[in-house]
Amino acid sequence: MTHTARRIGRSLALVLPVVLVLSGTLAVSAVPWAGQDSTTQLTASSSEVSTRAKSRAPQDVLRDQLLAELQEKDPGTALTHLQREVENRPSLAKHCISIARALGRAAVEHYGPSRAQSFSRPVCDTSYATGVMRAS
């Protein structure tokens, strides 16, 4: 008799938690939440979920700041600030070329090719001049 009782106990010990979890899951999913009828879907749609704004990478923030500065002042000032930022934050060095090229393209749009080229400086291996040349 004890052998049979142990067998039943072991079987219940294995099966009972699974049954409880499944029945609990089904019971929770059938509850009408906040007065909604039970036919509505319980998952949130993308329009209902409030999302946090994605944090921007430092190089993107710097690029936007320098492009705004280029519009307000001149490309020379933006290039000087780019050089200082790269010196102060060496992690930005790998993005210096792409930022300088973006400044070059923006300068051509704002000042025209010949005037934009006059602001050229040897920042990031003359990437600014490359951006001016490709935008022309």
Describe this entry's structure for a reader:
The protein has 136 residues and is mostly helical. Helices cover 65% and strands 0% of the residues. The chain has six helices and no strands. The mean pLDDT is 81.
Question: What is the fold's blueprint, element by element?
Answer:
Blueprint: H1 2-29, H2 58-72, H3 75-88, H4 96-111, H5 113-118, H6 127-135
Helix pairs in contact: 2-3, 2-4, 3-4, 4-6
Query: Residue-averaged pLDDT, rounded?
Result: 81
Distance between the termini: 94 Å
Question: Strand content of the residues, in percent?
Answer: under 5%
Q: What's the main sheet like?
A: none
Query: Class by helix and strand content?
Result: mainly alpha
**What form results from the Cα inertia axes?**
rod-shaped
How do the SSEs run, as a string of H and E? HHHHHH
| Poorly predicted regions | none
Rounded to the nearest angstrom, the radius of gyration is 32 Å
Helix fraction bin: 55-70%
Number of helices: 6
Number of strands: 0
The oligomeric state is: single chain
Output the keywords.
mainly alpha, about 140 residues, about 65% helix, rod-shaped
What's the short story on this structure?
By secondary structure, the protein is mainly alpha-helical. Helices cover 65% and strands 0% of the residues.
